[in-house]
Amino acid sequence: MKNIILAVVYCGITFTTALSQDKRNLVPSAPSKVPDYFCTWNVQGYSVSYESGDATRKVMNEAYMFGKGEYQDWINLCYPTIRQDLYFVMDDSWDIPQNVNSSSNPYLGTVEPDLTRFPSLSGSATERLRELVQRVKKSGWKGLGGWICAQKPENRSDTEETIYWTERLKVHNEAGFSYWKVDWGMHSRDWEWRKKLSELGRKYAPNLCMEHACRNDFIEFSDVFRTYDVENVVAQPVTIQRICDLLPYRALGEAAGLINCEDEPYIAAGLGCTIGVMRHPFGGNLPDGTQDITFPPVGRNIKRRIDEVIRGVRWHRIAEPFGVDGKSFVIDDNCLVDYWILQEKETWNKERKVGEVMTASAPARVSRGMPLPEVSDSTSADRPFILASRYPNGATAVASIGRALGRRYVTKEIGVTFGVQQTEAPIGLFGRFSSVTIMFAPGFRLKDYEVYAQDLAGNIAQNITRKVRGQNNEVIISGELLAHIGLSAASENDLSDPGVVIRFFKKSRR
């Protein structure tokens, strides 16, 4: 593509900028250092049609991770374009014998690859684990992680807790293991036990990221705290509210205090959180022909929204999530209520009944590190959730999150206005808007800048300078333009909402 040279003359001074769309890429090529990951639990469940918990655990093994059979080869099929940004996290049962799959067994907490599940591995625990790590990295993933039961196995009951977990952490450190997803178990809600585990981790496995869950106050000592499982038909308000419940806490000492909002990449971008991806490439009904109960093809139809995962993860190359500090947030007093009239096989929760009206509420607006954005619609019942964050590096993200109303997913477009502190810092816009108004510092003049925008799923920026409108120190961008650019790299048949990064570049003076 030929370079396009524009010469702009103002007050006798000539500004010349080379605008090469095939050279300007607003997304860094280097993978992020953010502890985002892909977790195998739902692909495990899909592979066995969610027959039972035992069946789901049974397929967490070498054959399904690397094999070439039906519903196998997760390592090579999942997220080829962004796996360098993601840890591959093996969920429940990677470390127990293949023929033992109940949720109550004497092997929970073994924390090393079991030879019956990974028969090609050999040697000591460190050697087996290192080999597994290397195989995963060779396939392009950032690293390997695993589900960790919050207890030791029965065959180590005589070993003192600190000694046992110190041994495990040293092995994982030497093997290059990257992520511990510490979940349920005997000590799942034990503050002292989890806090001690984090302290041991920082001492004996300083490159390991440790995630906790189950009690909100655990975030104070956590590298990462997970907002936990949701039913996807009402997942967004549930997740937003859980994040709001965590924001008043403050990370202590060496804790990073990051929030992992699981499989909600646009919420993650809007509120400075990490991502735990759960959706996977196996589409349609389950292998037994029935509807997928975790990702039902209703409402958002999440499994047809893979592009938004790519956009959310690639945003983290631009702006890294940040931890809780107990103060730098604002939560709207007004709440919005989502509701879903449940039909058959639309949730994994077996306690739900067909016809039940599921409800969930969350604040209409939430911000971190900046004031709440102003909105053109603050009264209608179907208006979107608006989330906004100013990241430590000066980047700003704003997300418009749709609504589950009855049996529809509604993405109403409204106008949003917000300010930025650094003119040339990246701006991420996620979701659909009628317009976006960006307020700059007094003295800003649009004529001094070139404006570029890029679909976060793509690699080519577009010059939109002539398509935006300047008014004093404000720049107004139409929602139509944002949607056009924010979906310009969309995959065929993908349903994701737009996700765009915008940059203002000072024109060079000659």
Describe the structure in your own words:
Helix content is 20%, strand content 24%. It is α/β, with parallel strands linked by helices and 510 residues long. The strands form 5 sheets. An 8-stranded parallel β-sheet has the order 9-8-7-6-5-4-3-10. Strands 11-14-16-17-21-27-23-24 form an 8-stranded mixed β-sheet. Strands 15-20-22-26-25 form a 5-stranded mixed β-sheet. Strand 4 (87-90), helix 5 (125-138) and strand 5 form a beta-alpha-beta unit.
Layout: helices, strands, pairs:
Blueprint: E1 4-10, E2 13-19, E3 37-39, H1 41-47, H2 53-58, H3 62-66, H4 74-77, E4 87-90, H5 125-138, E5 143-148, H6 161-175, E6 179-182, H7 191-204, E7 209-212, E8 224-226, H8 235-246, E9 258-260, H9 265-271, E10 276-277, H10 307-318, E11 329-331, E12 335-341, E13 357-363, E14 365-368, E15 374-375, E16 385-390, E17 396-401, E18 403-406, E19 408-410, E20 415-419, E21 427-430, E22 435-439, E23 449-455, E24 462-463, E25 469-471, E26 474-478, H11 479-486, E27 499-506
Parallel strand pairs: 3-4, 3-10, 4-5, 5-6, 6-7, 7-8, 8-9, 12-18, 14-16, 17-21, 20-22
Antiparallel strand pairs: 1-2, 11-14, 12-13, 15-20, 16-17, 18-19, 21-27, 22-26, 23-24, 23-27, 25-26
Helix pairs in contact: 5-6, 6-7, 9-10
